[in-house]
């Protein structure tokens, strides 16, 4: 089984750190676990698109994955999940709000109105 297959079977952020032998502060992971894994996924997809996995053996793939996890972890040591805005709910919280449309009553609606 390959490294990427093994990663897909892991169930917690701590499992990723242990499997890839990346040291971590449990307090950082406790606050940003989903964000770290999502960012790592973004880095992995970027590498895949760039063809970085082509021709690599399992050891080299493991090293590449370790580097991406370390980079993702450091992103959240230096920043916060709110500041990074990886999830839609965080992006929507700061998105400019569209003003409510002004009520519109066409003149034709006023012309046909009959009073008591």
From TrEMBL:
GO terms for biological process, alphabetical: nitrogen fixation
UniProt keyword terms in alphabetical order: Nitrogen fixation
Pfam families: NifW (PF03206)
Function comment: May protect the nitrogenase Fe-Mo protein from oxidative damage.
Subunit comment: Homotrimer; associates with NifD.
Membership in a protein family: Belongs to the NifW family.
Protein name according to UniProt: Nitrogenase-stabilizing/protective protein NifW
Organism: Nitrospirillum amazonense
